[in-house]
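pinning this so it doesn't scroll away 📌
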Amino acid sequence: MLGAICTQSLFTLTSLIYFVTSLLLGLLGPPLLPSFFFPTTSLDHMLQDHKSVHLVALDFSKAFVTVRHSTLAAKISSLPISGNVYNWIVSFLSDRQHQTTANDSRSDFKSINASIIQGSGLGPVACILNASDLCSADQSNLIFKYADDTYLIVRDTHLHTMPLELQHISDWANRNNLKLNQSKSKEMILSLHNGPVSTVTCLTRVESLTVL
């Protein structure tokens, strides 16, 4: 009987998390939702009209750990969701504690007011919502994101905007308790033409990227 109750509770919780995740993603709407998927089609179209396209994989240091619960809750509150759903999410984020285990020793529990619970159903969508207000400084550039993976795309005709774009993203990160790690961010240049391609950043240039 106890096993049946536990199974039923787990099913209910899983269903609720799935429902809330689907609801929140749906509320992002057509203008925002496409920015959370990798832009393979966009790259193909750009390369038809431009000699090269610069793809930057941005690295945010410890992105899952540093997301403030208060900031995330404020962004979720701007969505047209019911008070019950909002309160459930806030309850999920509130009064969380952390404990460190090393060998056979354990620290005392300490309260935390930041971090996304990795492995939870709300984890990826929480990161998506936290980054929902991250847009490019120049409308000609594109930013694509999913969870803690973020990509900047700049056409060759707008290379001069890349320093401004990186500074803009760094400023957004600072406001959201994150840190843009340019030393670990990678730049890949895609081109259908032979010949040298100029660059205006000090980012590490790579020939391939693993997109998760």
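📌 and the second one:
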Amino acid sequence: MIACRMVLVGLAVTACQRTEPGRDRATDRPATASDAGNGSSATDARPGARPIPAMPDPLPGIRKDVTAIVGAATRVAIGDVDGDGDRELVLADAKRLRIVEPSGRELASTEVAGGIQVLVTADVDGDGRAEVLAGWGASREFRDAKARVTLYRLDHGHLVEETVLVPSTTRPDIVAIVPMLDTRSILISYFNSKYMVSTVVMRRGARGWDVSKIASLRTATSFARGDVDGDGKPDLVVGRVYGDDQGGDGDAFVLAPDGTHTAIRTTRGLRSLALADSDGDGHAEMFIGDGWHQDYGQQARGLLTWVRHTSDGFHSELIEDTAGQYAIERLLPAQIDGRTAIIASGSHYVRAFARRADRWRAVTIAGLARDIAVGDLDGVPGDEIVVVGDRSAIINLRGLDWTR
């Protein structure tokens, strides 16, 4: 039985990063595949593993190598942190959190005291400048670090840190940070024990940050928020890697304000979740990285599934069983040539998906990535994709022929 108490607020189409039991906290994935950066496919030594396709040669898009700029970063985000109308890269590694222009010019940096787990940018206070929201916890470099969420503002070349939440927990893992800009609040999820995940909403009050408890759910590691049923109200979508029973398959559902669940059909557990309006009907669809199984050597699959709401409820449609992969670890929507694309970072490579001529098309754009981010970095309408890996790159897919 799941104990759940719910308070739901405001509207925004947002998704978040997540973590999961038994993960390598430095890379947020099982440490089984060799890092292949953004230019070559990873090898896989798992017994019986499906073959991994070779990388396209040449890789698609206009590409800028930013390996020297990214360095050892394991998390990346994009946002206009200085309020000048241009977006910067936010990079975090085991030593520093940095604000860097795409050209490589560093605007500010600060030392870190924990392992970076979640990195998000959003203009939380509405002043025209994006704040940096960071979730910290234990890692190989910081084995005794506590779970905490901090907010950073850029102030005259310095990053000013503010503590948002330091949860009391036996497992120092932050699962998700979801900015809710319509209500000037932040949804945060964290492990409160080995398997249970607490979700709270933080809102700035007269004496700091006020906390409202939302839910406690077993192995809930993917969260997104937006209007997925077309009623004009925000929905909280939750994905789980495992079910209520030990070893049981995970699932996905819409969590209502009264705590009830509306089930979404999935294939086993979820590793990632994003919302985007890809069909232009005015409300968000769900894109889920399902197919996860604890026996990732034999049974897990890196599936990308499209979920839409109709008069009959939610309908799930497989977009792709990605070849050779056991998981889709990160999903981000992007605007490319005025239309929505989905960027999927998997256990071995990164693919971009777009719907053209009433069917989904896909292209592999990079090998194994430590993280990805999406945003407009050149001032031309449309998003660029930042891939962080052994060879990091900013990738522009503008003008790509998806039908080839």
